[in-house]
Design a protein that fits this description.
mainly alpha, Serine Threonine Protein Phosphatase 5, Tetratricopeptide repeat, 15 helices, about 0% strand, elongated, TPR repeat, TPR_rpt
């Protein structure tokens, strides 16, 4: 329906034009072709934002059958494959985009993202190294930080994370990633600060809340941090804190936290009940 509306409006414009100019001066076929291109661009945008990314994958695959060299269609397919979490398929799709003459540096960054999602870390680094240093985008630095993390190049990772945080208005997830990097290195206080910062930026980010409890637990601090939580989230965080206590050898504290988690959860908390039963020898 959307497509027919665009084409109908376009044809009306062509007919209006033909009414006030000699026919010899108007190339009707060329005019209609231009209208179709404009309409298709709108349709591409619609599918890129579609709620079901697999529908977008099907659309771009169909479109590429009739016009396989169109970079915008190849880019749309690669983007939709990532959205659909079909990362293995997305890698060759982005490689085809990057091979095009009119490919951009951002396309290389997107290829690196797809490679990271498929654990091709060396290839991702090679692709990022080929991106000009003048490309200073949030996505580029976020990926550079993740790759540096994978290579345990902590100094570069910290530098890239810091730059990425400064290039976005929504840094919570990057701060969470940075905090997790600090946690894996054993810098528990540094991790705790970053997780707290992430939660201040986005109080709904449960992963950061759970990681914050882990960082505190590693320092044998098992009290829950003063962050906004639902009843269910509080129970889950108590469970995490309990397991941290048990891991540190504070079994009695862990049992108490498990009992509190079971009592707090709005439904039956099977994982916590099973852990408590195990600790009590049941």
């Amino acid at each position: 329906m959307r497509q027919s509306i665009f084409i109908s409006a376009g044809l009306a414009a062509v007919l209006a034009l033909s009414a006030c100019a000699p026919k010899s001066e108007i190339d009707i076929e060329e005019a209609i072709k231009d209208i179709n291109v404009v309409d298709e661009t709108n349709l591409n945008d619609v599918f890129l934002q579609a709620s079901d990314p697999n529908e977008a994958v099907s659309y771009f695959n169909r479109s590429l059958k009739s016009d396989p060299d169109r970079t915008d269609l190849q880019r749309g397919l690669a983007t939709s494959l990532i959205r659909a979490k079909r990362n293995t398929e997305a890698v060759p799709a982005w490689r085809r985009v990057v091979a095009q003459e009119d490919a951009t540096s951002n396309d290389k960054v997107q290829l690196a993202d797809a490679l990271i999602r498929t654990n091709n870390w060396d290839d991702a680094k090679q692709v990022l190294d080929s991106v000009p240093p003048t490309v200073e985008t949030f996505q580029r630095y976020r990926l550079e930080a993740i790759v540096a993390d994978s290579r345990k190049d902590w100094k570069r990772a910290d530098s890239f994370y810091e730059t990425a945080v400064g290039l976005t208005t929504t840094p919570a997830r990057v701060m969470n990633n940075w905090g997790y990097s600090k946690l894996t290195r054993g810098d528990f206080s540094g991790a705790e600060k970053l997780f707290s910062d992430a939660i201040r930026q986005d109080s709904t980010l449960f992963t950061a809340k759970n990681n914050l409890v882990l960082a505190r637990g590693a320092q044998r601090n098992y009290t829950l941090p003063p962050v906004p939580v639902t009843q269910r989230e509080r129970a889950l965080l108590l469970h995490t804190s309990a397991l941290s206590a048990v891991k540190q050898g504070d079994v009695s504290t862990g049992k108490g936290l498990l009992r509190e988690a079971i009592a707090t959860h709005p439904q039956h908390f099977e994982e916590a009940a099973r852990a408590l039963s195990t600790l009590e020898g049941g």
